[in-house]
Each structure stands twice: as C-alpha cells, then as structure tokens.
Design a protein that fits this description.
The protein has 13 helices and 18 strands. Helix 9 crosses helix 11. About 30% of the residues lie in helices and about 25% in strands. The protein has about 450 residues and is of the alpha/beta class. The strands form 3 sheets. Strands 1, 2, 3, 4, 5, 6, 7, 8 and 9 form a 9-stranded mixed β-sheet that branches. Strands 12-11-10-13-16-15-17 form a 7-stranded mixed β-sheet. Strands 14-18 form a two-stranded antiparallel ribbon.
C-alpha cells in the first residue's frame, strides 16, 4: 500500500462510528464461523442449515456450528456441520452462543438462531465490515414469514415474500433515521438483534461474549451490544443482509406474554445499563454512569462541589482528593476517596465547582453519547478552564490503538457552572439564607 493511499485504506479503525469511510473497500473473503443457536426446532434448523449450505461465500472459508441448548434429542446435522451441546438447565441462549464461539476457528463470528434462515448473500454481506474493521458490529435485516407446514428445502428467498409477516416498524424506522446506524449513540444497542449479528472473533473475545446470567428470552443481545459500543465498537445495519425469521416479531405475540417478558427484560437491563432510556429514573444502578474527580481545597468547597454535582447527576460518583473528614461526605456511597470504577464518562475537574444549572452540565456531557466526540473540554462563562470529560469509548479505543485520533475533541462553555472560592457561603447554597450567594 502506498504512503499516499487514503488513511481508511491503511488503518484498521475509523474515527467515531464512520464505517462509511470504508464502504468502498472489499476485503478478501474472511474465514467466517456461523453459530446457529438451537433448542428443539428440527424443522426450522433444517431450513436454516439448507440456506447456509447455499451461501455464495466461499465454502472453504465458511464454518457452520450448531450450538444446541440441551434439546431433548440431539439435532441431526449434515456432514461438514459441527455440533456442540450444553446440558438443559433452562433457557441459556447466551451460554449456547458463547459455547459456539469458543469452538469457532473463523476470523468473523456470525450469529443466527435456528428459526432465522439467511438468503444466499447473507454471510458475504454481513461479514464484510468486521473483516475490514475489527471493532465493527453488524446487524442484518430480519424479515418475518409464516413457514409452518412448508418444506424446509424450498429457498427462503423465494418462499419468504409469499408468506411475509409485518416487520417491526420501530426497528425499521430506527435504521432509517440513523442512516443504518451511521449516526449511532449510547442508546443504539437496542437495534442490535443477536439473531442476525456478526463481529470479529478478536473483538468478541476482548469484550467478553454474552452475559450468561440472562436465563430467559431476550436482553442478552442488547447488553452485549451496549458493552461492544462502550468498548469502542462500530455499529452498522446491513439492510441487504436478509434472514427470514419463522413467525412474527415478539411484539406480534400474545399481549400478556409479551408485556411480562418485556418488563422482566427492562428491569434486567436497567440494572446493567445506566444510561438514559435504560436506567430507572430514581433508583440508582449498581455502577456509576459518570465519575467526577474533584481536587479538594477546603471541606466547604468539597461539600458544595459534591452536593451540586450529585444534584445534577444523581447516577454519578464524586471522587474527592483528598477526602475530607466530614461525616456527611462519608455517609453518601456516591462520594469516594479513590477512583476505581469504569464509568461511561470520566470527568477530571481542575477546581472545585458549583453547578447552578444542572441541565447545562447534562447537555455538555451529553455530546459524549454520540459516535463522534470522545473528549469535551469544559469552560465556565468567565472563561475559566474547569476540566475535561472523556467517554469510555474513547478511552478504550485509545488504549487499543495507541492513539486518541479515533474521536474528535471539542470545547464547550457551560453556563451555570463556576469554579468556587476556598470558603464559599454554604448557607446561601443550602437555604438561600443571608446575603446573595457568594460562591466564586
């Protein structure tokens, strides 16, 4: 490759979520391991395996693995298809996918469910970006059809359109509005469906695979996609990578069943994904969403900083250095003497501050939720440099590639946040007593 070739032809990463910068490239066909998760669906599995054996991806670079979740009878697979099994201990799709991934030898992992049968170009199309970008997470288009009672050897690309069921509108609209996830953000994990997903094996192993604590339908794919995004993953929807699901979308099933499962899934994810749109509104998650480090000058300045920051960011943790010997500060578990968590956003302040406009601070940190900006330098309205904030995505990618060039930086003036004097008037803060507030 010549030195004057475009950087996107030479680098294994793109800035932000800009997978479009490599959209013109075609890699050598990668070695792909397709992992088909199965439980007691012999007819559906037969249709999916038949579809996989008709892929236009080079057959000598395609490995097919059936990961069986303890079916009462071992599934029958054709020659050349590997079978791995785990004992039946209830619904354990996450563990089955991990079992298949552990057995895989391909450079790209492609996940399918037994009842989701791909069209002939599916593997080639969904594996292209992960072959170019190790951090890419691709999700295909899952269409729905009623295949009940029909032969399993009829090509799904012919049969599907004749028996098609509605696609979920919310998902279709999300892909359209985000430019097929080009404009992804911290909440876009919900558009990654593991039944039609692919990624590089090296990134899957780094992120840690699916969370095996999920033991009923749904949620494990969204939690995994969230971790991938937070680790610097590049999300992309591949609309021409089509696989046909036998039966309706979950929302099209019995209302009471769907609602109960949806509520269980929502509560599981609220405990694991502390971002707006996933976390509870009042209940605190088990891990801090934002960690703010404050250099302490006096106990009063530390009190004002911690109190105003936590009022503005209830899911945050405040690290005071050094930690004052003040019982009120020690009583709140969100106030800490040392860092140590791995929050979504790390804020390093240069001074103790008072936050008078919570929405201004939330808006400033909110720019880190997108795919483009990784660091924000904060300034007060007076022009004082207050410190900087950096996303987990940017931190992880900088550590992976040894450069901070994977994300843009910006400077914002944050109205209503000010550096405070050593002895601010706390009575003005807690109850507006006495003279006009004198904090700075």
């Amino acid at each position: 490759m010549s030195a004057d070739a475009p950087w996107s032809d030479r680098m294994p990463w793109v800035p932000g979520n800009r997978w479009d910068l490599v959209a013109h490239l075609e890699p050598e066909p990668p070695r792909v391991s397709v992992i088909v998760t199965h439980y007691a669906q012999p007819a559906e599995l037969a249709r999916t395996l038949d579809a996989l054996l008709r892929q236009d991806h080079p057959r000598d670079r395609l490995e097919i693995i059936v990961a069986d979740d303890g079916s009462p009878e071992p599934p029958v697979v054709p020659a050349g298809v590997r079978l791995v099994r785990q004992e039946d201990r209830g619904f354990r799709a996450a563990a089955a996918r991990n079992l298949g991934a552990a057995a895989a030898t391909g450079d790209v992992l492609c996940f399918l469910d037994a009842d989701t049968s791909p069209e002939p170009g599916y593997v080639r199309r969904i594996s292209r970006l992960p072959a170019l970008l190790p951090e890419a997470i691709t999700v295909g288009r899952r269409r729905h059809a009623d295949f009940a009672g029909l032969p399993s050897d009829v090509p799904v690309e012919d049969l599907g359109p004749t028996r098609e069921l509605p696609e979920p509108r919310w998902l279709r609209d999300a892909y359209r509005q985000s430019g097929n996830l080009l404009r992804a953000d911290d909440r876009s994990y919900r558009y990654v469906i593991s039944a039609v997903a692919a990624c590089s094996r090296v990134f899957f192993e780094e992120v840690g695979g699916f969370d095996e604590s999920f033991s009923s339908y749904g949620g494990e794919d969204w939690e995994w996609a969230h971790r991938c995004w937070q680790a610097g993953g590049v999300l992309a929807h591949i609309p021409d990578a089509v696989a046909w699901h036998d039966g309706p979308d979950w929302a099209g099933r019995a209302a009471d069943e769907s609602a109960a499962e949806g509520n269980r899934q929502t509560m599981s994810l609220a405990a694991k994904i502390p971002v707006d749109g996933s976390a509870g509104r009042g209940l605190l998650p088990s891990v801090a969403d934002v960690e703010v480090s404050v250099p302490v000058t006096t106990t009063a300045a530390a009190f004002l900083s911690a109190d105003s920051l936590l009022a503005a960011l209830p899911r945050a943790a405040v690290v005071l250095d050094p930690m004052p010997d003040e019982p009120m500060l020690h009583a709140d578990p969100r106030v800490r003497a040392t860092a140590g968590t791995d929050p979504r956003v790390v804020v390093a302040l240069d001074h103790p501050v008072v936050v008078l406009r919570a929405e201004a601070l939330r808006d400033a940190l909110g720019v880190l939720a997108g795919g483009e900006i990784g660091r924000v330098h904060l300034r007060s309205p007076e022009g004082t440099a207050l410190g900087s904030a950096m996303s987990r995505r940017a931190r992880r990618r900088a550590a992976r590639w040894g450069t901070k060039a994977g994300f843009a930086e910006t400077t914002l003036i944050v109205d209503g946040i000010h550096a405070v004097r050593d002895e601010p008037h706390l009575e003005s803060w807690v109850g507006a007593w006495g003279e006009a507030p004198r904090f700075t």
